[in-house]
Amino acid sequence: MRLVLVGPPGAGKGTQAEFIAEHFGIPKISTGDIFRANVSGGTDLGRLAKKYMDAGDLVPDEVTNAMVRDRLAQPDAVDGFLLDGFPRNVGQANELQGILDELGAPLSVVLDLEVDFEEVVKRLSGRRTCKKCGHVWHLEYDAPSAAGICDRCGGELYQRDDDLPDTVRHRLDVYAAQTAPLIDFYRNVGQLVSIDALGAVEDVTERAIAELTPFAD
User: Fold this and answer.
1) 187 catalytic, yes or no?
2) pTM of the full structure
3) Domain ranges (residues) in the chain
4) Architecture of the CATH domain 2-115+178-215
5) Which residues is 130 bridged to in the sheet?
6) Looking at the DSSP assignment, which residues form a beta bridge with residue 27?
7) Per-residue pLDDT tens over the stretch 134-147
8) Which of 122, 169, 171, 187 is catalytic?
């Protein structure tokens, strides 16, 4: 199975990607992992990407695309993969199509994790992270026994800047403008399936696997 996972920030893509990839026995490939591997490995693409990252700039599509092309050509991806975080826009989707055409490995399906944006704001803005051990709590879904104190180590809990409500809403605005058009793109070519991403993690995983199983070779 060659699968792309899409959905807004806070939809649980990272968590679901792990479970789905394990179930179908395919590697989970994220752009973050690809960037880190190239930068730590000192590849030409990694050095180029690091220049942009160190300057606080977005890595250009052509650099990201080249990294993805190299990663999908590796032996462990021959029999399938799950892409998380790529493509992020329609231009990258067209580039991915070209890469897969070169490899003779057509995309099987695109899974869209659907979640209401206000639910995303509630999910992310309710998170509190321990300064000492890094554990993430949630004020509503997994609250610590004492406000502001980590049950695990007694460390102080804080709200990360990217979990502030205004920051979350900005991230969602960026998603709506740049990434959400992918949903229509893949729906129009008949490759999209969508599931409700609300509820317990295991319930969402069950829905995902049920929708994806018909596409497994």
Assistant:
1) no
2) 0.86
3) 2-115+178-215
4) 3-Layer(aba) Sandwich (3.40)
5) 157
6) none
7) 999 999 889 999 99
8) 171
pLDDT at 193: 97
pLDDT of residue 107: 96
Would residue 207 show up in a list of annotated catalytic residues for this protein?
no
* Given the residues 2, 13, 71, 128, the one annotated as active site: 13
Q: Answer for the pair 192, 180: CB distance below 8 angstroms, yes or no.
A: no
**d(C-alpha 17, C-alpha 212), whole Å:** 12
Is 171 among the residues known to form the active site?
yes
Is 71 among the catalytic positions?
no
Q: Which of 88, 123, 128, 207 is catalytic?
A: 88
User: What would the pLDDT profile of 42-101 be if each residue is shown by its tens digit?
Assistant: 999 999 988 888 887 778 889 999 999 999 999 999 999 999 989 989 999 999 999 999
Which stretches does DSSP call E strand in 115-203?
127-130, 136-138, 157-158, 192-196
